[in-house]
Amino acid sequence: MTASDQALETLALAARAADSKGGDDLVALDVSRQIPFADVFLIVTGNSERNVIAIADEIEDVLGRAGTPTKRREGHQVGRWILLDFGDLVVHVFHQEERLYYGLERLWADCPALPVAPLLAASS
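Structure tokens predicted for Ribosomal silencing factor RsfS (124 residues):
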């Protein structure tokens, strides 16, 4: 099994939204073979709590307008690690320190990476 077309379209919207608010080091992982509840993880870094919140808010706004509402949100008040669940796509917006500490890329190292740069270039 691989990530669905719907998950990849949602990923593209979320990646462009994160980039528009200064999200750094975007990494997308195809987790469809490892877990039954999502196809893709998008991992993004913000440079401050305020930036982490702004990135998460923009992703929610853009996906909501596109008809993909947030199913669950965690960590918004603190702004250190915000998890946004959109069904097929789960977005993790981290503060730099938390991203290094939790190392989701290491935990999910057996999942194939999905190219993000072409998604950002497509919006230019």
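The longest strand covers residues 24-30.
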